[in-house]
Amino acid sequence: FNLQLWNNYFHLAVAFITQDSLQLENFSHAKYNKIQNKYGDMRRLIGFAIRDMWYKLGQNKICFIPGMVGPILEMTLIPEVELRKATIPIFFDMILCEYQRTGEFKKFENEIILKLDHEVEGGRGDEHYMQLFESILTECAKQHPGISSLVESFVSLVKGLLERLLDYRAVMSDESKDNRMSCTVNLL
């Protein structure tokens, strides 16, 4: 097992699907349709490949926690529903890997909270992502009763944080200083 090779693969693949020139939702409707018809959404194909390779790592997955949390988060925040549905479950697998190794998933939790703040501040994330994140991880947790209550608490924490971050991002363009201050206090 060559850790550096796998690490390079994941980082390169995530860099590919997150590059600006592939963010189809930023294009006009006509340009979007033309690219979709000619090439399809390459982000989805690469995202599925990342997902498949992640699950093939076996016991070596733990080597990528917390280092791959940020890149995977960046990938799941791409506003493409099928990509999100396919890749958000990687987070539960990361939780499970760390929990089975250490009896907790604090490294994962700390990293996702840190990276989520950075990504939402950068303009990524939306209400739909928050709902999908909650439903997918809650559903995954139901299949593992021993860890489900911990995962549900984590999901609740992340959902609350994401709500506040999205509110904060929305209110930053607001003229009212009171609204901005209230949102900042809520976030803190």
UniProtKB/TrEMBL annotation:
Pfam families: TPR_DOCK (PF23554). One of its GO terms (biological process) is myoblast fusion. PANTHER family: DEDICATOR OF CYTOKINESIS, DEDICATOR OF CYTOKINESIS PROTEIN 2. It comes from Erythrocercus mccallii. Transmembrane segments: none annotated. GO terms for molecular function: guanyl-nucleotide exchange factor activity; small GTPase binding. This is DOCK2 protein. InterPro entries: DOCK (IPR026791), TPR_DOCK (IPR056372).
